[in-house]
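Q: I'm writing up a methods section and want to include an example of the input and output format. Could you take the sequence below and give the corresponding predicted structure tokens, formatted cleanly so I can copy it straight into the document?
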Amino acid sequence: MLVAIDGPAGAGKSTVARALAMRLGFNYLDSGAMYRCVALLSLASPGEAPAALAREASIELGAGPSGATGRVLLDARDVTEAVRAPEVSEAASHVAADRSVRAALVVKQRELIAHGDWVAEGRDIGSVVAPDASLKVFLTADPHERARRRAVELGAAPDAVLAEQTLRDERDSTRAHSPLRPAPGAVTLDTTGLSVEEAVDRIAGLLGP
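A: Here is the clean output for your methods example:
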């Protein structure tokens, strides 16, 4: 079984998807971490084509049988903390707009979810990577709430985060390839005012008893 969770930054995708995977005993796929890995490589090798870096990179997500711990290994190196740096986040948004990079990572993502039960999250899981997912959910939240969450996570000023977020939303939603939008058949869930447990409860309820 595959549960696809998409949505913009700050909507709670990673936190909710990881918690849902742990509750269900499923593997957890953080597709955004894969783009961050390519961004990290690109920052370290500015002369290299991002698509080539994406194709050649060895990216492993999670640790242990559930895969829900959120560890990120890039070419056998633990980069869990490094890929969350602000400059990497900014670079990842640009890298993600590269059609060739997306094509390379979609191949890797499909290989990962081909076997077993997964909760996969990102910005195009339900629309591109796995359109036949058992359940597709599009998480959203009030822009100011999303910025507040990101500011707490990054230790940054909310106003600055909101400004950057607005630009990123525009870039992600208008890009030519795999734009950010709800997948056909997806259930939209607004997480404004919801705790992580409440959001998980709602998604788990959609799967039935």
